[in-house]
């Protein structure tokens, strides 16, 4: 059984075009409102004296311990890597992609 679709009537076409026009008008109103908000923010930011405020905190006593720097000759790291590697040579790890 085949169904026959009828084209929309002129009243349906005008209603759908009115809805589309209303949606486009709403989008333009939202864009204009967003632009106004951003412009006001940039004007307020331009007038603010943020250069006078220092960035960061200076403490008399540091709360973090300094991290040790790797010098390239860390034997414990090397030993751990070679102990974990399944295939190895004297100075090289033999590995294939996605096999380790």
From N to C, what is the helix and strand string?
A: HH
Q: Beta-strand level of the residues, as a percent range?
A: under 5%
Strand count, sense and barrel status of the largest sheet are: none
How many beta-strand runs?
A: 0
Task: Return residue spans where pLDDT drops below 50 for at least 5 consecutive residues.
Answer: none
The assigned structural class equals mainly alpha
Helix content: 40-55%
Choose one word for the global shape. Answer: flat
Question: How much is the average pLDDT?
Answer: 80
Total number of helices: 2
CA-to-CA gap between the ends? 61 Å
Alpha-carbon Rg, integer: 34 Å
Can you characterise this structure?
This protein is mainly alpha-helical and 100 residues long. The longest helix is centred in the first third of the chain and has 38 residues, at 10-47. It has helices at 10-47, 75-84. It contains 2 helices and no strands.
Descriptive labels:
single chain; 100 residues; mainly alpha
Topology:
Layout: H1 10-47, H2 75-84
């Amino acid at each position: 059984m085949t169904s026959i679709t009828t084209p929309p009537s002129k009243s349906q076409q005008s209603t759908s075009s009115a809805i589309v026009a209303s949606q486009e008008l709403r989008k333009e109103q939202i864009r204009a409102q967003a632009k106004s908000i951003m412009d006001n923010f940039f004007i307020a930011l331009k007038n603010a004296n943020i250069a006078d405020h220092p960035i960061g905190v200076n403490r008399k006593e540091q709360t973090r311990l300094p991290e040790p720097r790797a010098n390239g000759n860390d034997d414990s790291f090397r030993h751990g890597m070679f102990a974990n590697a399944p295939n190895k040579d004297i100075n090289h790890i033999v590995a294939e992609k996605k096999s380790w």
